[in-house]
Amino acid sequence: MIIDAHGHVHDPVETHLRLLDEAGVDRTVLFGTRPHPERATDLPSLRHEMSALDRALSGKGDLDDGYRTARRELDEALAAHPERFIGFGSVRLDLPAEEIAAAVERDVVGRGLHGIGELTPPPGQAGRLAPVLEAAHDHGGLPVVVHGFAPTTAGDLHTLAELAARCPKVPLIVSQLGGLNWMSAIELARDTPNMYLELSTANIVLAVKLAIRELPERTLFGSDAPYGDPLLARTTVERVTPPGELRDLVLGGTLGQLLGIL
Fold this sequence. Notes:
The chain has one domain (3-259): CATH 3.20.20.140. The protein has 262 residues and is of the alpha/beta class. The chain is built from ten helices and eight strands. It comes from Streptomyces mauvecolor.
């Protein structure tokens, strides 16, 4: 089974399904989203869409309204296509620890979702994930996915590794191969047994090749659609891995085992 480890709700959702079909992807992890870059038709409209994320990261705007809208869109997509989408749920990171724990129980476990994410802490504040990992541990080791590209910093990656070490039963998945800090991300994940790297939007193919070489059982094929493309992401993995067990693990085997669906 080919599983894309990183996708966001598209508007319309049928656009996403066509991309998955074209890439030969069976299922994809689906995250809610506030910006919808796929709606953009030019640079000004893209800036408008991305401003929703900028406002959230800076603490501006109505966070509750943004989360409610993203949650509704995610629920609708999951209900319409349960055979293709594997739902993950986000939680606010600016809440007290007890409220984060309650949100994980209510908005992730209570909705029958498979994990937590994608979480995007403000730069330099990855420590906010501590109560999330603790809650994930309390619910049997739910996978937690955190944004790895900017605004996540090199220091944040070190913090994430430290947090993962405190909760060794929780799979912590760093998206986008840690962005421009991909070498540090590989080193940190190599030394942290419950830390995984998702390979979408890597800036150079060599980064994907080396990540898989160093972490053959803890690297995950992902596209980050609509920011990335499932076909191109799959082709990149296949370009740097020979046919066989290793490629199968990266393209879905490892994630399927983590989620208990293989």
